[in-house]
Amino acid sequence: MVELFNQTLEKYLAKVVEKRQREWDRHIKKQPFLLSYRSAVHDSTSVTPAFTNFWRELRLPADLITGIPPDVLRSITDYANDLRNKMNDIYEHVRQSGQQTSEKVKTRYDRKMNNIGFDEDSLVWLHNPVHSKGKSPKLQAKWNGPYRNVTRINDVILSNTERC
């Protein structure tokens, strides 16, 4: 989640900071970026980061104008019980949303993945992206071979290969 936030922050700063890139930290303080990020509902969790971290929604400037709703004022015991129930509910909700997001990512990955198996006694090439010092990496061969596959352990590991 931190990496995703950093990507979002970089995109935001790229839009706001054009010529004065050394003063990027001032733009974060002046702009309501963090408030809008923390109070926006995220697709992966379907709740706001503020609710995930603080177990309640943030009080926005508009809330100061409208005031506290009368149903919010209650006893400490009721508040603690409600908080415990909300914590359990949101934890379960975020866990399920995370699993669903993980399954979506896996499905997308599997759709693009080509499962090419190698049969025994077939010709294969070995990917070897090692670069020699002093030579241009663009002009060096990245593949060695062909090799004859004698024994197949699984789709990736071949043993007893001999160069043809």
Total number of beta strands: 5
Helix content: 40-55%
Provide the number of structural domains. Answer: 2
Distance between the termini: 48 Å
Give the structural class: mainly alpha
Helix segment count? 6
Radius of gyration: 27 Å
Fraction of residues in β-strands: 5-15%
Give the spatial strand order of the biggest sheet: 1-2-5
Largest sheet, if any? Answer: 3 strands, antiparallel
- Categorize the overall geometry: elongated
In N-to-C order, the SSE pattern is HHHHHHEEEEE
Question: What ranges have pLDDT less than 50 throughout 5 or more consecutive residues?
Answer: none
The pLDDT mean sits at 77
Describe the protein's architecture and organization.
The chain has 164 residues and is mainly alpha-helical. The chain has two domains: 25-112, no CATH class; 123-163, no CATH class. It is 48% helix and 10% strand. The protein is built from six helices and five strands, in the order H-H-H-H-H-H-E-E-E-E-E. It has helices at residues 2-16, 24-30, 33-39, 49-54, 61-66, 76-112; strands at 123-127, 143-148, 151-152, 158-159, 162-163. The protein has a three-stranded antiparallel sheet, with no helix packed on it. It has a two-stranded antiparallel ribbon with strand order 3-4. Strand 3 and strand 4 form a beta hairpin.
